[in-house]
Design brief:
two-stranded parallel sheet; 10 helices; single chain
Amino acid sequence: MTITRPLRTAALAALPAAALAAVHCAPVVSTFGPLRNRTMPRLSGRGRPDHVALTFDDGPDPLSTPFFLRLLDRRGVRATFFLLGSEAHRSPGVVREIAAAGHEIGIHGWRHRPLLLRGPRATYDDFARARDTVAGITGTRPTLFRPPYGVMSAAAHVAARCLGLTPVLWTCWGEDWTARATPESVYRTVTADLDGGGTILLHDSDCTSAPGAWRSALGAVPRILDTCEEQGYEVGRLCDHGLPGVDPVHDVHPARTGATDRRGR
């Protein structure tokens, strides 16, 4: 009896902590792609059916990102880059180059660490630091956010709302972060789930991937753009995607977002 009562008391005391942990981790269900794509269209990046959003994570990297920028420029395509704040701080010139080319910039956090391991204060500070760093470099405050590993938490949702950030994940990816990835494997993996209104996830940096893995994504992009063109999809930024809650950007200069526009400069 004397042993049972302390155990019961300890168990009851642990219930609030367990409940808080469950609430914190509940959004992790959105990590499961098929469920997210079916029930959470805005979080998945589901846009207008004649458009595909092209997005890149983990940059900027002065060794790899410029290759993607040159390729996109040749093809007349603009994309959305989700930048790590720490990498943006390290390479502000590349950030300015991304913005000057008309690409959209979102944040991927300050460092590429799982949000489930952070509390509310640390999560908020991480997002705010990344957002303000990018804003200080480009003069424009980002409004889009993608969590590392695509894993959200309750604290991440709250912090994003407080900071005016809209979380956006993806509907298809290239699995381009592994050492065994090739341009062909990335192309096959992306196009297996590609459809109108979808959002593609690739990486323009290997800072959290196998060394040199970005080359597999770079090699796959031309074929992905060709396939989108063949299927009648325009390719562009998330702000052009018709995504609920994301305002379109009205450019002063003519937009260069279509996969069918092959102009070079």
